[in-house]
Specification:
Structural class: alpha/beta
Strand content: 15-25%
Order of helices and strands: EHEHHEHEHEHH
Number of helices: 7
Strand order of the largest sheet: 2-1-3-4-5
Largest sheet: 5 strands, parallel
Radius of gyration: 16 Å
Shape: globular
């Protein structure tokens, strides 16, 4: 069963290395037969949150916001790829996510974190779990956590060294977990409409 999965990434830095992890995930999901798309907050370029999508009168939201809303509504699942900024969330990804609410409801989400150091973005992954749950997503228990990101994936998004080997070993379980929840949610939504 093919799943439509959005992989969301939010770094605005000029020397982004975490994009390698986002691209690795997209490519790996496609190899498994899923329809995966990278949603890069920097490319979309939403402004700092002023109005949420739902606060615009129908049909008057900016075109890039409208287009992304449709993609979110049509997705079966989401993967949030986040770096760790001073023990916290990546602001670009949080800003993009906060523009929407109901569009996220009743689908599974997964978290992939990374850092340039040894903690693998763990300080960002924890807050994301609570945030995504509050936004109506079911957050799966499996995570990907990549330390020393520049030493784990090369410029072509290929696993490198022991960190890359660890990522390649961890990815199948992560993807299987997300796939299981995605298929379960799709079946339930076909049987019964969400309660709100």
């Amino acid at each position: 069963m093919t799943n439509n999965i959005l992989v969301l990434y939010g770094s605005y830095r000029s020397d982004r290395v975490g994009i390698r992890l986002a691209n690795y995930i997209v490519n790996s999901l496609r190899e498994r037969g899923d329809d995966a798309e990278l949603i890069d907050a920097k490319d979309i370029g939403l402004p700092m949150l002023d109005r949420m999508y739902k606060e615009y009168p129908k049909g008057s939201a900016p075109p890039e916001m409208e287009k992304l809303a449709a993609k979110i509504r049509n997705a079966d699942a989401f993967i949030f790829v986040t770096g760790e900024y001073n023990w916290g969330m990546q602001p670009g990804l949080k800003n993009l996510t906060d523009h929407y609410l109901e569009e996220w409801f009743w689908r599974p989400a997964a978290i992939a974190s990374y850092s340039g150091g040894r903690l693998s973005g763990a300080h960002a992954a924890g807050p994301w779990h609570g945030t995504l749950s509050e936004m109506g997503m079911v957050v799966i228990s499996s995570t990907l956590a990549v330390a020393n990101i520049s030493a784990a994936l090369d410029a072509d998004n290929k696993p490198l060294g022991s960190g890359g080997d660890a990522l390649a070993r961890a990815f199948p379980r992560f993807a299987d977990d997300l796939s299981w929840w995605t298929e379960a949610v799709k079946r339930q939504r076909a049987l019964k409409a969400p309660p709100y």
